[in-house]
Amino acid sequence: MKIEQIYTGCLAHAAYYLESNGEVAIFDPLREVHPYIKKAEKAHSKIKYVFETHFHADFVSGHLDLAQKTGATIVYGPTAKPVFEATIAEDNQIFEVGSCKVKVIHTPGHTLESTTYLLIDENGKESGLITGDTLFIGDVGRPDLAQHVIADLTQEKLAGYLFDSLRNKIMPLSDDLIVYPNHGAGSACGKMMSKETTDTLGNQKRLNYALRPDMTKNEFIKAVLTGLTAPPAYFPKNVLMNIKGYESMDVVIERGEKSLSPTDFELVANETNALILDSRQTDDFAAGFIPNSINIGLDSNFAMWVGELIPDIKQEILLVTDEGKEEETITRLARVGYDHAIGFLKGGFEAWKLSEKDFETVDRISADEFAHKYSSEPLIVLDVRKKSEYDSEHIVNAVNIPLNEINDHLAEIPKDKPFILHCVGGYRSMIAASILKQRGWDNFVDVKGGFTAIAQTNVPKTAYVCPTTLL
């Protein structure tokens, strides 16, 4: 039996490839399915099953395309009600993959249909546990997401189900099982996941706060619900796509890969309500960009920030990318359900400049320049990091408006006074800068290198939470 974790860092997502005696099962695949198909073909094996641990919220799964292209059977755990054809397994049901077995263990809590899959090798030994969002390394799945899809569920009720699933279904299993979760650190599906992406169940019983053996159900519910932040707005929309289905990835790629000259790009932008999304790196965007475009760079958590900041999942999008990055950008949009890219700028931003069309820039200063200004004149400083980052340490008198909340607080940001913008390293503040530019602000500068660079200067810093008004 071969089990391989296929980890995608920008989503902190893990899919799994199980192979035995010419047959393959894929667990929780991403939207683009060709890598799984190629891997199976290289091994001269056939994909027999696509196992889903639950209806995912943070990405659109590739189950439908994978089944359509390979003839594989889609499998969900008990209580799942997909609109498309799938096998709804019974608790403890066994599926054979080559000479090994996959046992279904229904573990509701993160969602009602959440299911863990116990892997049993060719010798009959229980060797691994694919836990989905039920059990992470160092954490458990947040139990507040399904309530956004099913109205009569509460997070307290789901947390109680999760407690029972962990105590009655997971913790009695052997300590030497390898835990294979669906996510690692950086995912919004938990709050304190480890950077490690596998561990033994025995270690997790000892180290995971949620598996403490003497914890009562009430203590558990309080522990898992404390400190949860609001989930990204796109989560419920991805759940519904995973339940109801979606267009083939092939169609999405073909639509998005329409090459447009600068003149045609401008014409389409003017004739549609398309959003211009620039996925280049921060420095390149700051040096020049098409007016009204939004910068979300591919070099960090691109899909997450798209989901946080573009409210309409069906929004038409025109792309400005580095040359050769067009398909990657379309793919990463589609991973979180943004399927309506309608074309890209041929030749990238350089072609736009060569056509002598208007463009804008973002003014930036170094951390040393910021320190000099801070010591010599009153400054309005806008910090767009998360509240937890701000509370940990921030510049004295800086105001915190987290990036994911900026659209709700635009009225608090002055247009008649200059201000300075920063995040931790420059990625998020450039997104904020592009949003502000699009909305008519032009009275600010961005700190290159962000708080990380500022922290190396003598600017006073504190953990005191300052009033959140700029006016």
From TrEMBL:
Superkingdom: Bacteria
SUPFAM superfamilies, A to Z: Metallo-hydrolase/oxidoreductase, Rhodanese/Cell cycle control phosphatase
Domain Rhodanese: 270-361, 375-463
Key words, A-Z: Metal-binding
One Pfam family of this chain: Lactamase_B
Residues in the signal sequence: none
Protein's recorded name: MBL fold metallo-hydrolase
